[in-house]
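User: Design a sequence. Structure:
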């Protein structure tokens, strides 16, 4: 019996069980992974997320490692967890799919879904960025391994958004030290912004605060170098002209 015929029979059996109003019981499918897959899919389609998650998780443990259903079991397990508002478990399921089955058609969608799930857990830039880093890694892996994926543009957008948040977080940390006159520490964060995130809005602000920080500790040459960069990068910017002038390296001390 082929896999498609076997699953077809299993679907019919699962529908009979559902029609009888029987509760979802994994033990009823002992020894029949096709029937369990069909019943789990039926539960998923009916939005019975708890039953679907239980069934698909059991399948990831019981199916042979290279069975074609394993990738689908991981994918729908991830989706079930996402619907249950369990983003970490969802992300882990999607990631396992992509790691174990990089050639599967679901690998790229799984990476994107994992990125979304991790990103959901980093919902403000001032929070710990661990999950943001995990999200960025998933999107970047998708872009590196599947450059022709239909999800490329959306992944690029999510990467750009995350980079803006990383830059904002570093800038805010620098500003925290700047306001406390801990200029050496502030400089470290501002330099990280301009080095790692050169194309985000916070970069211009970080450059301006760098000028002020260098001047505050009397590093006039470093301030002049930053001003030179600012005048080239933002030649028409009013704040840059006020801080650095137009054609000379003269700078105004912080107020």
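Assistant: Done.
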């Amino acid at each position: 019996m082929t896999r498609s015929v076997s699953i077809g029979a299993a679907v019919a059996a699962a529908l009979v069980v559902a029609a009888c109003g029987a509760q979802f019981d994994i033990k009823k499918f002992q020894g029949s992974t096709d029937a369990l897959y069909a019943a789990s899919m039926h539960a998923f389609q009916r939005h019975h997320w708890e039953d679907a998650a239980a069934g698909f998780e059991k399948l990831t443990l019981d199916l042979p490692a290279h069975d074609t259903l394993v990738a689908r079991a991981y994918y729908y397990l991830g989706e079930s967890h996402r619907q249950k508002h369990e983003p970490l478990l969802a992300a882990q399921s999607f990631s396992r799919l992509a790691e174990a089955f990089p050639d599967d058609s679901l690998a790229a969608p799984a990476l994107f879904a994992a990125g979304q799930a991790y990103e959901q857990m980093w919902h403000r830039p001032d929070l710990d960025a661990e999950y943001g880093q995990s999200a960025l890694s998933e999107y970047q892996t998708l872009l590196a391994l599947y450059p022709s994926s239909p999800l490329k543009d959306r992944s690029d957008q999510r990467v750009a958004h995350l980079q803006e948040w990383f830059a904002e977080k570093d800038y805010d940390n620098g500003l925290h030290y700047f306001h406390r006159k801990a200029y050496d520490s502030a400089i470290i964060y501002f330099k990280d912004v301009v080095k790692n995130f050169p194309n985000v809005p916070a970069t211009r602000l970080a450059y301006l605060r760098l000028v002020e920080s260098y001047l505050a500790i009397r590093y006039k040459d470093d301030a002049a170098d930053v001003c030179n960069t600012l005048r080239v990068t933002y030649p028409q910017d009013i704040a840059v002209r006020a801080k650095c002038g137009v054609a000379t390296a003269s700078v105004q001390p912080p107020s």
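Residues 9-21 have pLDDT under 50 and may be disordered. The longest helix spans residues 152-179.
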